Amino acid sequence: MTLSGKNQAKQIFFRKAALSIIDGAFYGNTDLPFDREKVLKELEELVDHAPGGTFGLSLLMGFSNLFPIFRYGRTFTMLPPEKRFQFIKGLTDSKFRILRGLGVLCSFPFKLAFARLPEVHEAMSIPYHKEKVKPEPDQRWMKQIFPASSFDADETIEADVVVVGTGAGGAVVAKELAEKGLAVAIIEEGNFYRRDVFTGNPKDMMPMLYRSGGLTATLGNAIIPIQMGKAVGGTTLINSGTCFRTPDEVLNRWVASGLTDFTPEKMAPYFQKVEEHLHVMECEAKYIGPIGEIIKKGCDSFGYSCGPLKHNIIDCDGQGICTQGCTKDAKQSTNLSYIPKALSAAAQLFTGFAAKDILTNGERAIGIKACGIGKNGKEITLTCYAKAVILSCGAFITPTVIQKNKLVRGNKWVGKNLTIHPAVFVSAIFPGLNMKNPETIPQGYMIDHFHNEGIMFEGGTPPFSIIAGGMPGVGKEYIDLVKSYHNMALFGCMVKDTSKGFVRPGSGNTPLIFYWLNKQDTEKLVKGMQILGEIFFAAGAKKLFLGTFDHPFIENPDELKKLKERKLKPMDLILTAFHAVGTAKIGMSNKDSVVDTNHQCHSVPGLFVVDASALPTSLGVNPQETIMATATRAAEKIAQLLEV
Fold first, then answer.
1. What is the percentage of the chain residues whose pLDDT exceeds 70?
2. The pLDDT of residue 205 is above 60
3. Are residues 535 and 477 in the same domain?
4. Burial, 229: exposed, middle or buried (Cβ in 10 Å; 0-12, 13-18, 19+)?
């Protein structure tokens, strides 16, 4: 990777600019290992995995280098290190959003690169890699996996059903249909991985397991990162493993809209079947760690209800890396729970193939054409003809595949109706208390007291390099915060959004995701931060930092009470999201939805959508189990239509 464009002079300039920013952002650090050349090297690796990352970073550094002229009469690279630090800090502390945003953009990629260094992990007594565990011996079902790299020419196959995607929707419907005796072909864009390649380090895992290296984000009145898996197992491979049944109030709302098959009573057997198959159970207190005790102590002060979350786990020992591929095969993601069952029932799995064309005969869908890279490194095509085509690519890719193929043109709902459960976080410092963050379940506890208000709180502690990369401040203030990591409690808040977004095809297989956070949801997120802050202070926290770009540090409860007065806007919040649903929703007709109650497209017989796209509304809880339960039901309906 080169940080510049086409000639050596540009390379020299951008290298100089990058090192200047590093000097300013880490000025005064004497406590943690620091090598500016190593930070730059990590940055180059990081940018390599980001779509448009080289161009974007080059543009940012070029602008940042010129901007100080207005204040100092000199470019950034000409300033001494202390002035560089003062300039960046002045930006990050500015009362103007644009300047604050520039300060964050200037420092964030460099802080993330710094936090990825092995010597920083060592200094913080945090394992750089988790201990690898040898996988079980090869099983017979693995012979049913056919990577694109094993093909030396185009291939055409036939099946009863072709399923595109191996996540919570695709893996479940494939397994259920295969066990009913149907010939099932499964197509997956990502690869099949076993636990011996999981290191637990985001540096290795995010390029391997995440779409776009984990840098997918919404565009709108705030940039909201939202993660998608790209491997066998889909997003179940990289999620927290949290399992909730769909709340009755949500199901009843669906029923009121005409979806009478989705009553709590009718859905209960499907939830039970999924929970038994996934081994859903409460997280154990000893692996939740001190965060559970802290949240309970704070909640007890106010009479708030809270408790352990349920996960799909077997013999979990709190490795703390649920989102990076479980090194112990404890989390029962679909690559472990459903795909092996599907392949054992004679389904075939084709990996490394991205679905391109939906084949049709008249109005009816009759197959899929997918592309991959074969033995010789050249593109090859897999064509699969089938009686039923099932899209299970997730709420971003499924609608864009339909849009690219110009299907259901008269339907206004394809790609629309997007909800994502926008979320914020609050961190608290508890001096002298080891939070055991690297060795406990990252999301094992919840506060459900405000669920009826559309506010849900769940623990959400990412790996060290992610947390440290996103910490506020520059210079010694930032380093001191990094050093407090072991005394830091982090908890998240998500809202059942009334905001809506939409999805459109982008360049290649990268979708364009548009989302505008409305005033109501923004106010709920701010309220959530205030509630969490009060809970942390009640539990003995000495300092907070909020998920805000503007004045994130809170020293006492009185400061916290003034949070609402700050009138925070979406662009002031450090937002994340994890639960995209609704972009090909189920409903009664072409006028109000994309698919019918059998999950079949209203205007394209033979084309089915079985994933998060089909869920009609935001849930207010993690959607994994809902997707799986509806997929189990969908398999029954599809089998009936195919007269099995």
1. 97
2. yes
3. yes
4. buried
